[in-house]
Amino acid sequence: MRSETQTIQPLGGQGGAGPVLVGRGLTKTYGTQRALDGANIQINAGDAVAIVGPSGSGKSTLLHVLAGILPADSGEVFLGGRRIDQLGEAPRSELRRKEFGFVFQSGMLVAELTAQENAALPLLLGGASRSEAMATAREWLGKLGLAGAEERLPGQLSGGEAQRVAIARALGHRPSVIFADEPTGALDTRTGAETMQALLAAASATNAAVVVVTHDRDLAASMPRMVSMRDGKVQL
Ligand SMILES: Nc1ncnc2c1ncn2[C@@H]1O[C@H](COP(=O)(O)OP(=O)(O)OP(=O)(O)O)[C@@H](O)[C@H]1O
Ligand SMILES: [Mg+2]
């Protein structure tokens, strides 16, 4: 059933270990290029899952479909037992804002905003007051080892620091699921491993599930769960 107006109820704070996000039989074709070919995946509350697989196997597409950024051609996506893939654009974007957090390869921080303002953005977009959003952002930056860097602009941060700001930004609104596409792809091995540890620790502190696409097999193997994609399918 299509629902354009229904208000999204936050799932946060429910805890438990049941499925939080489920994708079933997902297909997606770009022109003639099949990116997803019946992909199935289940993410449980508090899960930390690495998605690995060859370039072009559909990892980013799967992430975008699960997060409601990209519509699938067929298949179903459930969040907390509720079907979300058929929602209209307005509730889908509300869902993304409230329930999901995103960390991309190179931060995607707003260059003109300070670290603290960047981290506060999703809260501000969600309707929090500036003082409340800035206080939460400061708290998360502190937890991520960035106390003192609040006023710096993205251009004044190292790659690893910028990714930790992106993590703070992804977590402040307490999402149920954090999606990360190659979050350590632009970092050296050691900084990458530290950044991933910071992400996992912060997610675990809020009981958020984490879904991370990575090319780094060692990093993936260090995560509690790893799934492989090939030819648009999640391997069993
Ligand atoms: N916007 C697009 N238009 C056309 N084809 C696309 C588009 N996005 C992805 N594809 C194709 O769909 C397939 C899956 O792409 P996807 O980006 O999901 O792979 P990936 O596993 O994330 O790869 P990588 O590891 O290189 O990031 C590839 O064949 C890709 O060329
Ligand atoms: Mg990709």
TrEMBL record:
<dbReference type="Pfam" id="PF00005">
    <property type="entry name" value="ABC_tran"/>
</dbReference>
<dbReference type="InterPro" id="IPR017911">
    <property type="entry name" value="MacB-like_ATP-bd"/>
</dbReference>
<dbReference type="GO" id="GO:0016887">
    <property type="term" value="F:ATP hydrolysis activity"/>
</dbReference>
<dbReference type="InterPro" id="IPR015854">
    <property type="entry name" value="ABC_transpr_LolD-like"/>
</dbReference>
<dbReference type="InterPro" id="IPR017871">
    <property type="entry name" value="ABC_transporter-like_CS"/>
</dbReference>
<keyword id="KW-0813">Transport</keyword>
<feature type="domain" description="ABC transporter">
    <location>
        <begin position="21"/>
        <end position="236"/>
    </location>
</feature>
<keyword id="KW-0067">ATP-binding</keyword>
<dbReference type="InterPro" id="IPR003593">
    <property type="entry name" value="AAA+_ATPase"/>
</dbReference>
<dbReference type="InterPro" id="IPR003439">
    <property type="entry name" value="ABC_transporter-like_ATP-bd"/>
</dbReference>
<protein>
    <submittedName>
        <fullName>ABC-type antimicrobial peptide transport system, ATPase component</fullName>
    </submittedName>
</protein>
<dbReference type="GO" id="GO:0022857">
    <property type="term" value="F:transmembrane transporter activity"/>
</dbReference>
<dbReference type="InterPro" id="IPR027417">
    <property type="entry name" value="P-loop_NTPase"/>
</dbReference>
<dbReference type="GO" id="GO:0005524">
    <property type="term" value="F:ATP binding"/>
</dbReference>
<dbReference type="GO" id="GO:0005886">
    <property type="term" value="C:plasma membrane"/>
</dbReference>
<keyword id="KW-0547">Nucleotide-binding</keyword>
